[in-house]
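Protein in question filed below.

…
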Amino acid sequence: MTAKIERVAAIRWIQAQMADYGLTMEELKAAGCFEPPPPQPPPPPAPPAVVCYRNAEGLTWDGEGEMPSWLKRAVNAGQSVGFYRVG
């Protein structure tokens, strides 16, 4: 079925339901049938990232994705990544 045919079928079904139950447009409006739907609740917050590496300035990295520039600079200067490991 095309979208246009489905739409026509849906309208006819609604009209039939209104006739079967004796509903009027005014009753449907009063019941809030034409109000916009309520907004969806926001998604729950993401869990905090687990800190795996931290430097003396408090900059952190969770070990996921690309290594941050502060840690790259330290490694390039000869420091081991393990030096910054937390825990």
The helical segments are 3-21, 25-30, 69-76. The chain has two domains: 1-41, 42-87. Residues 3-21 form the longest helix (19 residues).
